[in-house]
Amino acid sequence: MSVRSKFRLFLFFFVLTIPELYPGDSPLITIPVRIQDPSDQHSIFQKDDFQLLINGREREIIRFEYLEKSMGILPELQRHFILSFQIQEFKKSLRSRISYVITEILHPGDQLILVSPLNIYQLTVPENREKLLSTCNSILIHDFLQHHQIRNSAYKQLVNRLQKLKGGYQKSEIFKGPFVRSINFLNIYPTEFKKYRNRYLIPDPSIFQKVNTILMSVEGDKWWIHLHDHQTYNIFFQTSDIINEINQYIINTSWRNQGFPKAITSKLNQLEQLLLLAETFPRKQILDSLLRGNISFNILAFSGIGDAPSHTQSIVISDLERDFTKISQASGGIILNASNPTQEMTQLKRHVDRYHEIDFYFDGKIEPKIITLNFLTQKTITTTYPSTFSTQDIQTLIEFHSRKKVTISDFSCTRNRLAFKIHSFQLNPLQEGKQHYALIKVIVSLANPDNAIVHSSDKILRASDENLDISLALPENLKGTHLLNIRVIDLLANRQYRFSRNINLNRP
């Protein structure tokens, strides 16, 4: 065996034994859960309402917390935005929406992932957002132009085939000419149409996976804004028209041999199936990536096909909107079709994503995880959450959660006084003549049994040591069992720690 082969074998063995690195101090894994209760939008849920299973085995829910986020609210942690496009060309209606997102929604320090038709770009939002807007426009103009040239060539080839067949039906030949043209067309066009559809008309799941890989190891709100133009699907409408013409040709022709129309009809059915987007839309793959990364998916759709779409156009658009709506709702986003860009963007900025977070301890096994969340009461609800994690997903999460991260310990609550210790936060690099320090934000809230917040406080603290001791008096008038939520944010490291516990107040 060569030295290189031995080295490869050692690496493989090392990966398999990674679980031994986490025998006792298991990190917490967090999954987002979105709950829809058709009977009551304001339902209150508790940890005990759910049973968590990991690979079929029940696991303890360590933390179950209700959260809200909105693009219009600037949080403490860094935000991440993704801009993507299903657009035929870079036109004025697109520019105005991009301008609003960058200048009105994004803030300095936010991270922007720009998904052009050709590449994925990672950008940090500067103080001068107009400069970022200029950069994004330059990138998109360049990439859309190149993409349009490639796409247009394939589009013209499809249109030429449609026009040639349509021209054949207008000639005086009754039998041989149109039949041969129809068969030849149906032997070639479906393959070319399928290739074009998959390349240019259906969202690519691998893009969502790549973005999720980038964002899986970061904390903070994550928002995906997808700009979508129905005009992109004109080739569907043109193909549907030619299918109607072929059907008319079959109906209006007197056939001596019934095998001929059957041969055309068989191939025609295959082409019709390619127009059914619901059969091919990769909804599950896209949604899985979004849920694993807790990315809220928002769609801004504008038609461009006229005020009165045909029956075929309505079907195609309806299929698209149904799939996009399911993805956006399940991930906490919104789909907007407003014709007024200002109204559309205002709705986007005001939209609130309401969800819960569940924490459970890592079991030490780096392997695929199947997550099942059972609702234990009689109510009928719909839950969406990341139900599967690959081995690579788990390894990425554990490596991230095992890094040094702000945390709390030595918690106690005696006679309405909280005490705990904050440690493992990031100190800024030492500079000559200056003392190193950390900036820690501590947010404390108390909720009564009805889940109403009865007390909250927040402070930003400056620490110059490796530990920070906290002692906090709670209101003396609060008595009985309350849910305590503590959120500690390391502002320099962009990391946070959440702590939840039921406590009894005014007891020794």
3D structure, described in words:
- With 508 residues, the protein is of the alpha+beta class.
- It has twelve helices and 21 strands.
- It has a six-stranded mixed beta sheet, with helices on both faces. A four-stranded antiparallel beta sheet has the order 4-11-1-13, with helices on one face. It has a four-stranded antiparallel beta sheet with strand order 3-2-12-14.
- A hairpin with a 4-residue loop joins strand 20 (480-490) and strand 21 (495-505).
- The longest helix has 41 residues, at 129-169.
- The radius of gyration is 29 Å and the shape is elongated.
- The chain starts with a helix and ends with a strand.
- The model is unreliable at 1-24 and 304-309 (pLDDT under 50).
Concise summary:
The protein is an alpha+beta fold and 508 residues long. Helix content is 39%, strand content 29%.
Highlighted features:
508 residues, alpha+beta, 12 helices, 21 strands, 39% helix, disordered N terminus
**What Rg is obtained from the alpha carbons, in whole angstroms?**
29 Å
User: What structural class do the secondary elements suggest?
Assistant: alpha+beta
Largest β-sheet summary: 6 strands, mixed
Spatial shape: elongated
Provide the residue-averaged pLDDT. Answer: 83
Read across the widest sheet, the strand sequence of neighbours is: 7-6-5-8-9-10
Count of helix runs: 12
Helical coverage, percent range: 25-40%
Spans of at least 5 consecutive residues whose pLDDT stays below 50 are 1-24, 304-309
Give a count of the beta strands, DSSP E runs of length 2 or more: 21
The fraction of residues assigned to DSSP E strands is 25-35%
Separation, N- and C-terminal Cα atoms? 69 Å
